[in-house]
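tokens incoming
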């Protein structure tokens, strides 16, 4: 079954549709994406001839039993009956074949109510509950397949219950949605309800998010992933059917979930309705792309946006195809995510995983790893930490997403197996499995081309231009019979991409046709078989019989009776060695004598030749013709900016072959390259006949981060690119060689040096991918075998020239003709083959490219010169012309006698960023050094008031806690003050606390005399909203304390003595014995740190006030630490208005307070002298006072620039 069965069924149903057998369906075709089909349905009152209904199969590997289809149409004028039919059909499309899908959909469409001319029958309103669809089961029992397709159909097959109109929900269902989403909020994530999900109906979209700066990622990682610290990582979950809790999802088949996911980023925690729905309605075909936006205009989206991440394609695919099957495996076999993934792929056989490999890796080994220090989000596993009927599906999905996003460099992007632990790349990649490599490069599971174009357009321009140069030498002239097999500079061609290209070398089976003067109509020969005639939607190339320039077009319609093809001209390509303009091409094409009626003869070459079947020389020519038709990168950038959810493949001007080739060019580059230059002159629109998207005319090239500080000074006239990391395998070999050499030669101060390397432009496509080597000889080896470098810029410049007649990629903005690199080399010149006049290094693993420079020709668009590219101000120069130095240490210090010389004859100043941050010490694991992720003082965005009210809208019932205006608790069934909290019936205290083994802790619960503690005054007022929130929190803590061993929990609350919800006493205990604090406590005979937690009337919108009552800590100024102020208040941004989020649970607050007290940086927490501590048994003089705690808290906030909550200011007054 699986993909092959899907393909076979699609071909069969397409033939049936073409024969007019299926009622109302005119055609069925394969979509542009894997698992997609497009149904062309004729509707009487649609403004166009047909309505295109797209069906996307999720879980195609398990088709048909384990897959489900998602239906959508983006036609602006889709009639309501069609929209309603799609809505009603959707719940019944799990585990069905394509044939059954089409039959169900056709049956619903044909049985729709009578339609008015405008398609808006009043009886067909989407809000009516008495739609005639609800009567199908009573009246229509037979369809064309002899089956009954009704709401009973879905129920009979165990799919979804009939919803009969607008999806409504009971109070219990709404409570479950709130419960599951509250679990997400209490785990530290933000919730955004979109378009009334949960409030009005159980279908729709929910947004789950967390700020990037909370994930503990290093600054180098953030730069490499193109995310900002204040961005939000967002998971959108779309429920196509009624919301089902996790336990029900597990009971269903994997295809029965009807849930889809999208991962992206945003500047806000919740994208707008239009952006959220747009993320699930991405245009995948050219027609759909044209129909989803107004003519010539951009798509209209309002409100906060939603952008794809560079790995969104991989994460989306993983979540949509594998999350539910993995969830079921984890539940049924008690596996971790990793082991479940190994078992899943071993069953599907999609990559080379054996059952032995699944059982060989212990669970503990795969789950433990190098978590960021103090990072708890990646450790928690809600699936195993909560009881079976209280688990939240959205929280499990969010934890899954965060885990694989934050750890994406540790896993293969395709099969998601853990990669080698020897090396951690800056960007994620794939494992060594050949199938993963193929799918990474050919099927879009690698980096998003659209993301790269929008963020780093010059990098894309560079990669395409280098590929174009590598297929050019000797490949530009027509090759008789394809017999010339000279080696091209390119070392590897794309394989297995299913590229269909025009075979311009085919002199035997050429389709001749006459073309009109407008170049819009072709009339072909009468004796040609129809199967050899291009079909609508197919690309063709045509050329004069005498040769010359080739034009490319797409067939828009075909008339077999009159033997005509209507075409739309898309571009041209050249087969000569001279660059030509579009006007030159038009003139050459019109030189032959015209035939009757002004038509002329041309040879037609359809895009139907398998690229893999061509010789290397023919492949080079075919690739060049395809790339000639590719629009410029600014044109693609402008298109994607105007249509944010579309792809390059949906552009009219981009053929399927060009889109696949562009994907291969970008994905086959495994180096992490950043564009340093990002200025852009105003670009004039193209002037050829084809319609062109609007080009960016101002602003920087791409929306990536400004990297002006990484620029190497005094390189005027050169465009700069920095290699933050080479290909992972080459970088691994380099770092291993560096470690070994540094240890052997005892190098510590200057382990590496820098040198130039110049080479012909055509060589750099392969150099970027596999590194420098000396496999080919071009200029001789007078100083021995090895890679030649020079410390002098002028020397390497002599090797950067281009061959006579070199032609760059016509669509390039850079239009460069020279290329050279700055390379990092292991500092062991005594082991070089030669060091004078050149460095000759025979060890291919001893060097890595760190900067690439390209020199643009006179027709380039970027402004390269004395102006800092990407800035609006000129460089400041001193009298002697050199740039002023920045702060000390801004540039890399070079070893004496081995310095590198720049183009001005002076020592080149290399920014420290040129050298990747790594350790050169010898060790078994090689990692990139992470900079300390400083805690950002960013205000978390406030959540939507309506969303928040919905989440915490629990109805009060008998036995629930109520409170008076001061927060004192009592049962709703009695006015008597009782120690019941949140409706939980208490038993003896012994049943509320798990009995610890005495060897585990010296803490004795209940031994604290609460009457001796100084406390803040009770609140004067309290809001019902805060009372409810605190009741829930206290109930949860009570449950946690009752079910967790005391020594593992680390905190204790005397719940029987909590008589005011707004004032708690908490004891922290059982500290790690090695901590200085624990040792001090043991000496003083103290077993706990007593805290008072005081809540304001605005909780949870404002943070609680947390202070230590006893014992007294050593002040910071005297060498103490632990984030305890001189007055005993906790000094934590989390507990201020600047760092607080209403989503924080009090369990997490207690955990973070404990972690802060245990933190050894910058100094460990210590107690005051033992003698002073021991006085507490007879006096309370050593307790922290209430007034000094509040004053110390306010001082700390003012010092750090944190906002003091209004509640706490009122406590002081």
């Amino acid at each position: 079954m699986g993909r092959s069965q899907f393909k076979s069924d699609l071909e069969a149903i397409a033939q049936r549709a073409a024969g007019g057998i299926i009622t109302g369906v005119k055609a069925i075709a394969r979509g542009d994406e894997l698992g997609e089909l497009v149904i062309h349905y004729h509707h009487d009152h649609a403004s166009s001839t047909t309505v295109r209904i797209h069906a996307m199969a999720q879980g195609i590997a398990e088709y048909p039993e384990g897959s489900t289809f998602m239906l959508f149409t983006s036609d602006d004028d889709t009639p309501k009956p069609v929209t309603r039919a799609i809505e009603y059909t959707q719940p019944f499309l799990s585990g069905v074949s394509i044939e059954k899908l089409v039959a169900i959909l056709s049956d619903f469409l044909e049985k729709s109510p009578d339609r008015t001319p405008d398609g808006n029958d009043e009886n067909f309103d989407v809000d009516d509950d008495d739609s005639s669809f609800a009567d199908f089961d009573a009246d229509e029992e037979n369809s064309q397949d002899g089956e009954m397709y009704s709401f009973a159909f879905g129920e009979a097959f165990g799919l979804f219950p009939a919803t009969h109109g607008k999806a409504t929900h009971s109070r219990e269902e709404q409570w479950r949605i709130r419960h599951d989403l509250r679990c997400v909020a209490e785990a530290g994530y933000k919730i955004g309800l979109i378009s009334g999900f949960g409030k009005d109906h159980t279908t729709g979209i929910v947004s789950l998010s967390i700020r990037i700066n909370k994930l503990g990622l290093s600054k180098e990682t953030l730069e490499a992933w193109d995310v900002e610290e204040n961005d939000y990582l967002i998971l959108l979950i779309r429920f196509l059917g009624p919301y089902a809790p996790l336990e029900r999802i597990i009971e269903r088949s994997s295809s029965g979930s009807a849930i889809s996911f999208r991962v992206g980023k945003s500047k806000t925690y919740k994208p707008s309705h239009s952006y959220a729905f747009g993320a699930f309605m991405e245009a995948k075909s050219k027609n759909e792309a044209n129909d989803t936006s107004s003519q010539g205009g951009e798509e209209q989206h309002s409100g906060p946006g939603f952008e794809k991440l560079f790995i969104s394609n991989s994460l989306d695919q993983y979540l949509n195809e594998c999350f539910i099957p993995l969830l079921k495996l984890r539940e049924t076999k008690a596996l971790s995510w990793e082991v479940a993934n190994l078992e899943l792929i071993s069953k599907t056989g999609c990559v080379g995983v054996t059952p032995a490999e699944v059982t060989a890796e212990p669970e503990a080994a795969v789950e433990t790893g190098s978590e960021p220090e103090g990072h708890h989000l990646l450790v928690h596993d809600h699936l195993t930490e909560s009881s079976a009927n209280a688990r939240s599906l959205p929280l499990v999905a969010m934890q899954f997403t965060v885990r694989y996003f934050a750890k994406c460099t540790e896993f293969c992007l395709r099969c998601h197996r853990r990669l080698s632990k020897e090396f951690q790349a800056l960007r994620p990649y794939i494992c060594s499995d050949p199938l993963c490599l193929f799918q990474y490069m050919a099927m879009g599971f690698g980096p998003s081309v659209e993301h790269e174009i929008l963020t780093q357009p010059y990098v894309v321009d560079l990669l395409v231009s280098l590929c174009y140069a590598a297929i050019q030498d000797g490949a530009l002239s027509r090759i008789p019979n394809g017999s010339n097999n000279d080696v091209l500079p390119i070392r590897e061609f794309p394989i297995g991409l299913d590229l269909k290209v025009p075979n311009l070398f085919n002199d035997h089976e050429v389709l001749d046709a006459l073309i009109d003067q407008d170049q819009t109509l072709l009339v072909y020969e009468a004796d040609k078989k129809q199967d050899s005639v291009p079909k609508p939607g197919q690309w063709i190339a045509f050329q004069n019989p005498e040769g010359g320039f080739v034009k490319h077009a797409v067939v828009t319609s075909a008339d077999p009776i009159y033997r005509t093809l209507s075409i739309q001209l898309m571009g041209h390509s050249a087969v000569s060695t001279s660059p030509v303009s579009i006007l030159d091409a038009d003139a050459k094409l019109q030189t032959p004598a015209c035939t009757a009626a002004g038509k002329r003869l041309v040879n037609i070459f359809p895009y139907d030749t398998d690229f893999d079947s061509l010789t290397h020389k023919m492949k080079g020519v075919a690739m060049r013709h395809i790339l000639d038709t590719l629009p410029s990168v600014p044109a693609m950038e402008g298109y994607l900016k105007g249509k944010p959810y579309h792809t390059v493949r949906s552009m009219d001007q981009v053929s399927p072959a060009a889109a696949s080739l562009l994907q291969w060019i970008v994905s086959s580059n495994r180096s992490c390259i950043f564009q340093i230059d990002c200025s852009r002159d105003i670009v004039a629109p193209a002037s050829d006949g084809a319609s062109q998207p609007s080009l960016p005319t101002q602003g920087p090239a791409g929306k990536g981060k400004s990297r002006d500080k990484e620029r190497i000074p005094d390189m005027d006239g050169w465009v700069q690119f920095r290699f933050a990391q080479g290909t992972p395998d080459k970088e691994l070999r380099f770092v291993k060689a560096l470690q070994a050499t540094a240890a052997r030669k005892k190098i510590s101060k200057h382990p590496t040096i820098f040198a130039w390397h110049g080479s012909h432009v055509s060589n750099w496509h392969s150099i970027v991918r596999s590194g420098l080597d000396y496999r080919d000889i071009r200029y001789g080896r007078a100083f021995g075998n090895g890679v030649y470098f020079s410390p002098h810029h002028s020397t390497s410049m002599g090797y950067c020239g281009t061959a006579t007649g070199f032609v760059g990629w016509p669509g390039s903005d850079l239009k460069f003709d020279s290329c050279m690199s700055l390379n990092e080399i292991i500092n062991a010149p005594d082991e070089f083959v030669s060091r004078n006049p050149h460095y000759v290094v025979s060890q291919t693993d001893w060097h890595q490219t760190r900067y690439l420079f390209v020199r643009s020709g006179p027709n380039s668009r970027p402004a390269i010169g004395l102006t800092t590219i990407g800035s609006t101000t000129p460089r400041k120069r001193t009298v002697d012309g050199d740039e002023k130095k920045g702060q000390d240490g801004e540039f890399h210090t070079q070893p004496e006698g081995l310095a590198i010389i720049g183009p001005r004859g002076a020592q080149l100043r290399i920014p420290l960023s040129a050298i990747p941050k790594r350790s050169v010490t010898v060790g078994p694991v090689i990692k990139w050094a992470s900079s300390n992720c400083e805690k950002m003082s960013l205000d978390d965005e406030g959540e939507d008031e309506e969303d928040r009210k919905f989440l915490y809208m629990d109805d009060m019932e008998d036995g629930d806690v109520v409170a008076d205006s001061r927060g004192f608790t009592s049962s709703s069934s009695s006015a008597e003050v009782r120690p019941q909290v949140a409706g939980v019936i208490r038993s003896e205290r012994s049943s509320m606390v798990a009995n610890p083994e005495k060897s585990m802790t010296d803490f004795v619960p209940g031994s604290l005399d609460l009457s001796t503690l100084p406390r803040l005054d009770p609140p004067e007022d309290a809001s019902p909203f805060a009372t409810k929130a605190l009741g829930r929190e206290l109930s949860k803590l009570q449950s946690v304390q009752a079910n967790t061993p005391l020594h593992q929990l680390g905190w204790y609350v005397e719940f029987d003595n909590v008589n005011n919800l707004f004032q708690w006493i908490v004891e922290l205990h059982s500290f790690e014995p090695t901590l200085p604090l624990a040792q001090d406590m043991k000496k003083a005979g103290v077993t706990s740190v007593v805290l008072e937690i005081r809540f304001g009337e605005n909780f949870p919108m404002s943070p609680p006030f947390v202070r230590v009552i006893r014992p007294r800590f050593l002040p910071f100024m005297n060498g103490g630490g632990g984030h305890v102020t001189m007055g005993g208040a906790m000094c934590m941004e989390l507990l201020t208005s600047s760092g607080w989020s209403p989503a924080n649970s009090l369990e997490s607050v207690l955990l973070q307070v404990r972690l802060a007290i245990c933190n050894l940086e910058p100094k460990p927490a210590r107690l005051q002298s033992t003698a002073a501590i021991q006085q507490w048994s007879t006096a309370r003089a050593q307790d922290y006072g209430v007034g000094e705690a509040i004053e110390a808290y306010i001082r700390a906030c003012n010092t750090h620039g944190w906002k003091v909550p209004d509640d706490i200011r009122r406590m002081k007054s």
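note: The first strand starts at residue 25 and ends at 30.
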